[in-house]
Amino acid sequence: MKSLFSSALLGLSLAVFLSPAGAAGHKGPAASLLPACQGDALPSVHCGQAPAAAFDEGGRLWLVFSQHGHLYLSWSDDQGREFASPTVVNRVPEAIAGDGENRPKLVLGKKAEVFVSWTVKTPGRYSGNVRFARSLDAGRHFDEPLTVNDDLALISHRFDAMVKDGDDRLYIVWLDKRDLAAAKAAGEEYAGAALYYAVSEDKGASFSANRKLYDHTCECCRIALDADSADRIVALWRHVYPVNLRDHAIARFRHPAAARKEAPLRASDDGWQVDGCPHHGPDLALSKRLQGKAHIAWFTQGDRHPGLQYGRFDLERGRLDFQQTIEAGAGASRPQVLATDARVFRAWKSFDGQATRLLVSESADEGETWSEPRWIAETAAASDHPDLIAWREQVFVSWHTQAEGFRLLPL
Amino acid sequence: MHTTMTAKRITLLFTLLTVLAPARADVRAFLPGSLAQIEAHHRTQPFLLLLWSPDCPPCLKELAVLGRHTEHLKSDRLVLVAADLGPTDQEIETLLGSFGLSRFESWRFADPFEERLRHAIDPQWFGELPRAYLYANKKRSTHSGTPDQQTLNRWLAALGQSQ
Q1: Which of A154, A219, B14, B110 has the most crowded CB, counting CB atoms within 10 A?
Q2: CB contact under 8 A, A26 and B88
Q3: Which residues contact B8 (CB under 8 A, 6 or more apart)?
Q4: Do B131 and A276 touch (CB under 8 A)?
């Protein structure tokens, strides 16, 4: 541990000199306002950016965060009050994307494996590669990171998302612009980017060749993933339906999946036509009680239902059971959804002109009815996207704010 | 010696920049009170306030279109605001220069609390880009996304440029 910590310090000091300007990429989150985080602060969950949190089966909280071109892993046995000294994931600093929509991902295995994926900025506009590193010893040591995209052109392979199925296959899905590049070279039009995936069947030692699932995704909104009990992956993303309709698409697949020619199933049909960047992706949680049902949350400005939306999607019938507006005002953002065995939770942010509040509501009937929104935290400075995480039936919101640092808020 | 070398490099860099980009405008820091400043400064003439980001492909498409259509537009009729904390002033200047838009007033978000900046501009704006506000005939009209030809023509007519 000591030598790793020294490596972290060495890496940190190197990062100060080596990390490229704008290492966090565009849309970089704000530097912490905490006094302990000023200057060349040591790696800390409070000083770092874009944390990803998850509980292991024993109830230990794991957290990966970005600081000075490195990703660090830490853990807490008291639900986020105290954290262990961080260990470094990538020893050589790189330009890690660390903003709300495009941020590191953390998945835990059953036998002390820790899997981390992220996007690294490469030279050129919108360009990046999908990176991955694993630890097989509970984060004490990480293997050298590898690049998951097998096309290495200096174009966009970004907005990675990661999920593990019940049989320990590890999927990484991302937005890829190799088809846009090919179309441009041929003098053809191509809307948006494409949804690609790779899978590891050896606990992250290697990944399969890249496979395309669908053309014409929106270019800069996060992807949401979950795995069902039959080891199928469900992906939800903002799509570009003709012409410039930026509604959501949903797909269920299992490796090896072939590219689809037809348009993907429409998960939201709000009619939002815009040749612009929402920078505001959806979230997804499969129901634990109802087979083939997905709880989904998203943002739209379509005329039919503007604002933050929630719906329950039936994957067998290919349509929404129902749709509800979570909050319609422009200050509402970043809806999250999580399902436990007994309940479904929604969390989102709401800015009133002065402060940002974190709101939650819950449902005991699989999303049909919801409790009144409850305000659980607020901040008067910049804040990251919130995330819902659970340990058994205990649910928490993980939230990083510029003024307060990292908080794990129990519901 | 090191200091001298650095000083020489800086001088050389500065000279190059001056020669290569003579019309380079300063990028000003956009803070919660900046919109009021812009509105006061431009109150006697119509103008278009355009919010964009280097990380938004449709925004660059719109800048390219504006670059092609604003050759004869007076320089006080367009105000560009990069609604993004990431890019450096140099990146913004280089990009705007590549579209022939260097002569227009340029700002960039300078408060990490982006929600507050967006709210100060328009409480009804969700943050999607590009976002345009046309100030003309004593009112402000709004547009999200790149404009179609009809919208662009309407803007240019309102800003006093003949087609």
Answers
A1: A219
A2: no
A3: none
A4: yes
Q: Which domain holds residue B56?
A: 23-158
CB atoms within 10 A of CB A138: 18
Task: Write the ipTM.
Answer: 0.84
Does B151 reside within a domain?
yes
Q: Which of A275, A278, A351 sits opposite B119 (nearest CB)?
A: A351
Q: Please tell me the total count of domains within chain B.
A: 1
Check A280 against B127: CB less than 8 A apart: yes
Note whether residue B57 is domain-resident: yes
CA–CA dist A58, A38 (Å, integer): 34
Q: Is residue B12 domain-resident?
A: no
- For CA atoms A336, A225, A240, A247, the dihedral sign is negative
- The full set of domains in chain A, from first to last, is 2-410 (2.120.10.10)
pLDDT in tens, A140-198: 999 999 999 999 999 999 999 999 999 999 999 999 999 999 999 999 999 999 999 99
Render pLDDT for A221-267 as a digit per residue (tens, 0 to 9).
999 999 999 999 999 999 999 999 999 999 999 999 888 888 899 99
Q: Give the distance from residue A298's alpha carbon to the nearest chain B alpha carbon, in angstroms.
A: 13
The CATH number of the domain holding residue B100 is: 3.40.30.10
